[in-house]
Amino acid sequence: DNSDVIATDTQKNTVHVLAKQHGVKNIETFALILSEHFLRKYPHVQPVVMAGIRNLRVLKTTESAFRQFVTDEFRTLPDTDDRVMSTVVTADWWYNTAMGFCFDKAEIVKSTILEKFAGPPETGMFSASVQNTLYISGKAAIARIPQ
Question: Which residues form a coiled coil (predicted)?
Fold first, then answer.
C-alpha cells in the first residue's frame, strides 16, 4: 500500500519550487520551510532537524599529550607530553528546538571545536588526547547552544 508515500519527483519538485519562492539563506532554515510545507500537506510526516560538520581538519603542534591509556601486551607507544596531533573532525547533532532558532548560530559549534583544540594564542590549551579534547569541545558547544 503506497497511499502514504510521497513520490520522489514530487519531493524534488517541491524543493525546487520552495527554493525559488523563499531562497536558501542557510540549510537549516530552508529545511524548516520544507518540513512546514510537508507537515501541512502530509500530516503523517515527522520532523527532525539535524546538522553537522564534515572534514574539519585540525593540526595541533604544541600542548598535546597522550598518556595514561590502556597498557597491555600489544602496546608499544610510551606515554608522552609532547606530540604533534592531527585529526579530521566529524560532528553531528540534532536540535531539540527548531522553531524560532537562528541556525546561523551553528557556526559557533565549529569555532568552539577550534577554540578547544587551539586555546588562547599566547598559551595554547593542553590536550590530554584527541578523544578528551573532542569531549570537551562537545560539552562547550552544548553549553553555548543548548538547543
Answer: none
